[in-house]
Amino acid sequence: QSVLTQPPSVSAAPGQKVTISCSGSSSNIGNNYVSWYQQLPGTAPKLLIYENNKRPSGIPDRFSGSKSGTSATLGITGLQTGDEADYYCGTWDSSLSVWVFGGGTKLTVL
Amino acid sequence: EVQLVESGGGLVQPGRSLRLSCTASGFTFGDYAMSWFRQAPGKGLEWVGFIRSKAYGGTTEYAASVKGRFTISRDDSKSIAYLQMNSLKTEDTAVYYCTRASGGWPSYYFDYWGQGTLVTVSS
């Protein structure tokens, strides 16, 4: 059971938009920055979003992040088949003193 | 170009030890915290622990599942981070990833990842 809650899967058609939610509590998302990671099949994770809504260089602006209270959201617009991957949110939990992840969300581009 | 290369994985019996290495290049290693993550087959990501830079004491934090068994260390002169794993259990079987931690604690984010090394604990 993950400390952060993500939907197990989401799907949408190419060109459409999808959002992935990440729900936590005041001890993690509520008081710390959230980052998002993309893991393509058979590869290492890659940083997509950091400090809630910032994109590293090289990440297209189709990817966006936001945070409100104890929840965070990853948005992906203009979906491409190459976006099919597992997506993870993560943050520090100040009460547990550990880094925590969501369980991951598998994106399918139909 | 930032690169992180893990090594040292393999098959090990329960109760034995293994040391993983993470060789870094392309950045000033000593300026960054380093972290280890793992991913069991077919499962999600799990944080193992991290080590702060010497400027922040070089101190470590660990997940409850490995505390007391695993130790993270660093050799800034060689740009290598280590993960010493003792008293290994079958549930430690996973791909282990080394990452660079940017930002400031506790708001780290992990901007570069190695390719991972597989550790299999089995008799």
Structure characterization notes:
The complex is a heterodimer of chains A (110) and B (123). Chain A has 110 residues and is mainly beta. Chain A has a single domain, classed as Immunoglobulin-like (Sandwich). Chain A has strands at residues 9-12, 18-23, 35-39, 46-49, 63-68, 71-76, 85-93, 98-101, 105-109. In chain A, strands 1, 3, 4, 7, 8 and 9 form a six-stranded mixed beta sheet that branches. The mean pLDDT of chain A is 96. Chain B is 0% helix and 52% strand. Chain B is globular. Chain B is mainly β. At the A-B interface, strand 3, strand 7 and strand 8 of A face strand 5 and strand 10 of B. Chain A: Residues 1-89 form the Ig-like domain. Chain A: Pfam families: V-set. Chain A: InterPro entries: Ig-like_dom, Ig-like_dom_sf, Ig-like_fold, Ig_sub, Ig_V-set, IgV_Light_Chain. Chain A: This is IG c1033_light_IGLV1-51_IGLJ3.
